[in-house]
Amino acid sequence: MFTRQFNSTFFKLNEVNKPYYVTTPIFYVNAAPHVGHLHSMVLADTIKRWNGFLSVTNTPAYLTTGTDEHGLKVQQASANAGVETKAFVDNASKTFKILADKAHISYDRFIRTTDDDHIEASRQLWKILQTNGYIYKGQHSGWYSVSDETFYPETQIEKKKLEDGSDQYISIETGKTVEWSSEENYFFALSKIQPQLLDHIEKNKRFIFPQKRYEQILREVKEGLSDLSISRPKSRCSWGIPVPGAEDVQVMYVWLDALTNYLTSAGFPNLKPNSPWPANVHVIGKDIIRFHAIYWPAFLLAAGLPLPDHIVAHSHWTMKGSKMSKSLGNVVDPVQTLNTFGVDSVKFFLMNDSFLSRDSDYSNDRIIHRHNTELVNKYGNLVVRVCGKAFNIPRSISSDSKIFRNESLIHQINDLPEKVATHMKNFNTAQALSDIWSLISSANTYVQESEPWTLKSNIEKQDAIIKDVSEAARVSSILLNSFIPEISSAMLDRLEVSKDKRNILFASYGTDTSYGKNANRKGDYPIKSIETD
Ligand code: MSP
């Protein structure tokens, strides 16, 4: 049986008594939150909830999110707004916290890179890298993009002719303008750690998701890595963490500072045996893969710290095929979306209609369609059907008809948890949801075809049908709790499943024989359609 098999996997997973640790990227505070940011949060939250769900009898999972507040971009944005930089970031950071709260993201820490413990952690990491011989001073010249906060190698730059005939240089990857810049900086010896990094990536095929990104990074690391400038002259950017030993002249490169947030949230530099580090999953967008899959593990290896298990890079949301961006004016305001359609319906759309390996088009119509057809007409309908006044759930679930059992539906119910677990191991939320909906559809079809309301004179058969269908609704709802917590809880409430029987141990057929006491008397509908004109 799944539960037993699952338990053995589970105990293996949690041998080390540490929480399953999931992170979102920390968000730049120089622009307002958009639906792409919400997507990173929701994916991380779903992964956290699912793994917490799996470890029901053990350590809970741990999730962090927050804001990335240092760097030239922020310094410039606050200057443009005519606001003192700290006041500017305080205000901007709040908008992301509001979004996380509004979307019911179950974060355990909202980290800000201006937090004291983070500044301390970043300086500590720097000192360790220095002691270990990975930091040196040098002259740095190269193509720098203010907007991307990074230097690009010559091979990643292309020349563009402007309308006035002048030349502009841009980064091929991001399309952002770059300028030639020369300065004295500290460097990280990325080339020295390259063999170790390559070895780690080659040995850990599940280090980077999806597969095509794994291959892309493997190729890049194989080609060889140049050393990385990890500080900026204070004269150019003063809004950053001072470099230990050079406090008056240099600040840390914003990506080194930002990436360290994942350690800060885990308690670094005071990591204990049950601290969350190493992270199990860093959820990121595809645009920041190099920073997470090359620089970050390189820093960690050089510092002698354990590496995260998985880096999961999701794709982007587009609008009618083009990238969502502020300059195109096609950015979707996530708070407004959540207000209009409801938290779980937006989550349901994001986790259903997105893929790690290709971009997806955002559409309000699609949110409404998913809500009305799948959540209301299929899932809601299934729950409401078994709660019909003509049936009796408590009597049905304690009956045990050998003749009228629907073996194929029972198999589908019992196979489902493991299927979902496998998809979630591959961070494939869309496939996990699709398998849950296959069960919901099978159960609906079974009710439709067997017409239990016509079986008043064959109660044994009616009860057997209602038992199998109720079990499909109950087990689906338990499994849906990580994806659509509010809606699935409302359904479990409607089925009168007791709160302590909503965990993985009850996610198989026949494991709960005590629900539904008044379910067939109430007649209310736990979910409503979204009206369209
Ligand atoms: N501050 C850095 C991350 C540092 S992590 C140590 C950053 N911030 S960001 O605000 O620009 O982006 C945060 C996340 O939002 C990224 O994962 C990015 O991929 C994601 N998205 C931004 N636009 C997006 C879409 N249009 N669609 C989906 N996600 C996208 O990068």
Automatic annotation (TrEMBL):
GO terms for molecular function: ATP binding; methionine-tRNA ligase activity. Its EC number is 6.1.1.10. Residues 20-386 form the Methionyl/Leucyl tRNA synthetase domain. Transmembrane segments: none annotated. GO terms for biological process: methionyl-tRNA aminoacylation. Belongs to the class-I aminoacyl-tRNA synthetase family. This is Methionine--tRNA ligase, mitochondrial. It comes from Magnusiomyces paraingens.
